Amino acid sequence: MEIRAVRASDKAEWAALYAGYAAFYKVEQTEAMRETVWGWLMDSAHGTEGLVAEIDGALVGLAHFRPYARPLSASVGGFLDDLFVGPAARGSGAAEALITALGDLGRTRGWTVIRWITAEDNYRARGLYDRLADRTKWVTYDIKL
């Protein structure tokens, strides 16, 4: 398994994985939405970056992340926005490898934390997350705009 930055040549496989991620969370996602995110990933000035997990020449997982300011600690952290491994590759270690690679990258950039959220009922993923990270006491709120 190789964990690496997403490349322009990954677009079709990435799009299939990202559509699978949206379907997993039952989020309606159009091709135009995927094009927007792809544009962000390909624009070094945007801030959103991507890692992919590749096994035998095929992409099996993705992670999208970005730095974020942590004013209270006067530091910068990394936020893991999206993490997905295709159903056929679940149990391969791809999710853990993506998170580990992001942690390594964050350390080289001087980030103080990697943070993410997941659905409360995403039990399989939470089993991994509980092993790799500390669950926080913070509750998340959204205001729809």
Describe this structure in words.
Strand 2 and strand 3 (58-70) form a beta hairpin. The chain has 145 residues and is an alpha+beta fold. The chain has one domain (2-132): Gcn5-related N-acetyltransferase (GNAT) (Aminopeptidase, 3-Layer(aba) Sandwich). It has helices at 11-24, 31-42, 94-109, 123-132; strands spanning 2-5, 49-55, 58-70, 75-85, 114-115. The protein is globular and about 40 Å long. The chain has a five-stranded mixed β-sheet with strand order 1-2-3-4-5, with helices on both faces. The chain is built from four helices and five strands, in the order E-H-H-E-E-E-H-E-H. The model has no long low-confidence stretch (mean pLDDT 97).
Main sheet, how many strands, which sense, barrel? 5 strands, mixed
The share of residues in helices is 25-40%
Mind telling me the C-alpha Rg?
15 Å
* Mean pLDDT across every amino acid position: 97
Number of DSSP E strands: 5
Structural class: alpha+beta
Euclidean distance between termini CA atoms: 40 Å
